[in-house]
Design goal:
Radius of gyration: 20 Å
Strand content: 15-25%
Number of helices: 10
Shape: globular
Oligomer: single chain
Largest sheet: 7 strands, antiparallel
Structural class: alpha+beta
Length: 324
Amino acid sequence: MPAVVKLFAVEANTMSNNRSQVPDVQKVKSFLLALQQNICQRLEQLDGKASFKADSWEREEGGGGTSRVLTQGQVFEQAGVNFSHVMGAAMPASATAHRPELAGRSFEAMGVSLVIHPNNPYIPTTHANVRFFIASKEGADPVWWFGGGFDLTPYYPFKEDVVSWHQTAKDICDPFGEDVYPKYKKWCDEYFFLPHRNETRGVGGLFFDDLNEPGFERSFEFMQAVGNGFTDAYAPIVERNKELEYGDDERQFQLYRRGRYVEFNLVYDRGTLFGLQTGGRTESILMSMPPLVRWEYAFTPEQGSPEAELYDIYLKPQDWLVQT
């Protein structure tokens, strides 16, 4: 796991005051609920046929959430947008693996997470997440932080899509410092990587965690910018590609590549592990799984094919915004 990224220019004599700011939990929750609603509305507009069904749930240990799922749409085979707000007496192992000093603290966590699996293989699968944690212990100041990001997993990538995706990500980050995009882009490439396949899950995007250095308000502003910017990055790609014709060969390759999504989420994803280890609602946690998927033994794409281009070019971390 990369070292914690320290973001945004902050004067040294105000840094301690920024970290000690009392977080406004209700303010964060209100934003997340509105974000879930806004994203669902935009995805329904893009699909033009299906609508989201809401499924609210409660967690015995404390908290709950609402899962919204769209299925069998005109554009989206399945799209899920979850809101959760849970709390517990002890941080789970997935949350303390890289921060052992938080072991034994109680926690409160809230966030919006989504995964979209389109019908058309020329539209990429995508994932986004924004979240907020507080870890508390009697006699000690609470420890809080923001995290999140978004990433793109194309099957038949078009360079225009990948460049526009990363340009939007950079535009989101630039108001917070010129070093923000490259740091969080690199962290995304490193996080969404399958060591057993020696390949990235897709073409990346942004990934950040443990964000509290700039203080609550500035950190919250960044989280909001990432959450609100997701549809700005994804919607143009859907609009460009949703009418492209495809055949069974493209569909079969899409189903095969979806297997990588399953492998990553079940083996490596910290969000999946956190949900399962905290006794979260399994149906909501595994909403990220594609409705159809296949594996094929020792598959190798034909040399010179569009499928080979995905492996040879697009599943290798690189600077997509370099002018050529």
